[in-house]
Design a protein that fits this description.
The chain is of the alpha+beta class and 478 residues long. It has 16 helices and 14 strands.
């Protein structure tokens, strides 16, 4: 089956029946009708419909190298700068539907899987695991599958001297090898949209590996036996798009993933206790530059969205004459143009690998990913400062369908709109900057690609500074 539509995606999710625990109970109902998941699933379904629109199909899909059918561009291994542009346009077309609030739209992990599959043969070093990876990728591309993933170990003890014993696994690890596959026991954190995607992609965490039992990579269906997803509280408190314009549609549930002696079949494994591959797979695959390219493309749209919301607030209460307001909105303008410049620079500086893969320049992308965690919280603060008490005086949709509507229309009207439209705009700004959903978004962007301190250290260590030093030394010469 080639690139699918929204109805096909929703049917797959309804039939998935993964083991999901929500608010102390295992879900047994259709996940597509549950209030905590309905909004995000319908929003994702819309993405699949968009890629099949005639005006967008040329850049959002491409001919499968196997069947010739149209498949999603997010799976395409770019061979030219034009291909990179198509990938960026696809990401941004999808990001526009959520204002960039959907951090785990399907193209994110599709991109990561593509990057790994581009070097599939390297995983064949001492096994046929590379063949497994290639088949997983091709199956996903041809069926338009979706993936959740998990990178993080439980935060039990983060001191530098903590060592986890073997008796009771906490962090997910290999506990047994059988003829049928490997058995995983323990937990991983932060599987955003876990249990509501076709598969779960599990990758090595990175860093220094103390034990080989932590070195593995595989992809398994989300409904694999003994695989358990434990939800946080839902931030989709109400289904009204007026009351919760973003959280009712785009709250991406975050999960704790518990592997309770999960058997992973050998054909699903593409890394097993191989230190060399684990330590080189991300660098050799250009995994990070490709994921960063997708991420910065989305964050650029998100910045543009916040700029638009800020200006709507300004116009609604007619405060554009004030210099401090212009200064604040100008911060958002600078942020948007800066993110856009990083993105375009990465494409302009893209180079082909020896395998023919066109990889975006990582330098501007790494600078972008260390910049955005600092500017995004400031942007939400600007919305709070512009909206001020207006972000608190936000009656509900039901209030406007009640006898007090006339009072609201008098006392909450805007400079150029009625009270209901003014409230709708302010509720949008509140859902970005002040609600539980908005708080999660800020935390999410602070740590989206990991610890900001480590990211900056990585940028320092990897950046080629010789030319800059040479220029500086030239000023010392007589």
């Amino acid at each position: 089956m080639p690139a699918c539509d929204g109805a096909s995606f929703l049917k797959r999710m309804a039939n998935l029946k993964a083991e999901i625990w929500f608010d102390g109970k295992q879900l047994t109902e259709n996940i597509c009708s549950h209030n905590a998941f309905k909004g995000i699933l319908l929003s994702k379904a819309k993405l699949f419909d968009i890629q099949l629109e005639k005006s967008k199909m040329d850049f959002m899909t491409y001919p499968s190298p196997v069947t010739g059918d149209r498949v999603g561009t997010s799976y395409m291994e770019p061979r030219s700068k034009e291909d990179l542009e198509k990938r960026r346009l696809t990401t941004q077309e999808w990001a526009k539907t959520s204002g960039g609030m959907m951090g785990r739209s399907p193209d994110y992990m599709n991109t990561g899987l593509m990057a790994l599959a581009a070097i599939w043969d390297l995983f064949n070093e001492n096994s046929n695991f590379g063949e497994n990876l290639k088949k997983i990728y091709e199956n996903a591309r041809e069926k338009d599958l979706t993936f959740a993933h998990t990178f993080v170990n439980p935060q039990v003890n983060r001191s530098s001297f903590f060592y986890e014993g073997k008796d009771t696994p906490i962090s997910a690890r290999i506990v047994k090898k059988t003829n049928d596959g490997i058995v995983i026991k323990g937990a991983r954190l932060l599987a955003t949209q876990g249990g509501i995607t076709d598969e779960l992609l599990v990758l090595p965490i990175g860093g220094k590996y103390i034990e080989e039992s932590f070195i593995y990579a595989f992809s398994i269906p989300s409904n694999t036996p003994n695989l358990k997803f434990i939800c946080r509280e839902s931030f989709a408190y109400r289904q009204s798009h007026f009351d919760h314009p973003l959280s009712s549609r785009f709250d991406e549930m975050d999960m704790i993933v518990v592997f309770d002696d999960v058997l992973v079949p050998w054909e699903r494994v593409f890394l097993y206790k191989d230190y060399n591959i684990a330590n080189s797979m991300y660098e050799n695959s250009s995994f990070y530059p490709f994921l960063l390219h997708q991420t910065v493309a989305r964050q650029t749209i998100k910045t543009k969205f916040l700029l638009g919301v800020a200006q709507l607030l300004v116009e609604t209460i007619d405060i554009s004459e004030y210099l401090h307001i212009k200064e604040k909105v100008s911060e958002l303008i600078r942020g948007y143009e800066t993110m856009k410049a990083f993105l375009f620079s990465s494409e302009m500086g893209a180079k082909k690998t020896s395998r023919g893969t066109m990889v975006p320049d990582g330098n501007p992308l790494y600078v972008a990913i260390t910049t955005f965690p600092k500017i995004y919280p400031r942007f939400t603060e600007i919305l709070q400062q512009i909206g001020a008490s207006g972000l608190i005086s936000i009656p509900t949709e039901q209030d406007f369908n009640s006898p007090i509507e006339q009072d609201l229309q008098i006392y909450l009207q805007g400079a150029n709109c009625d009270a209901k439209k003014r409230t709708e705009i302010f509720r949008l700004a509140w859902d970005i900057s002040t609600s539980a959903f908005g708080g999660r978004q800020t935390l999410y962007e602070r740590f989206f690609f990991g610890d900001p301190v480590r990211l900056n250290a990585s940028l320092y260590n990897s950046y080629q500074k010789d030319n800059a030093v040479e220029l500086a030394r030239s000023m010392l010469e007589n």
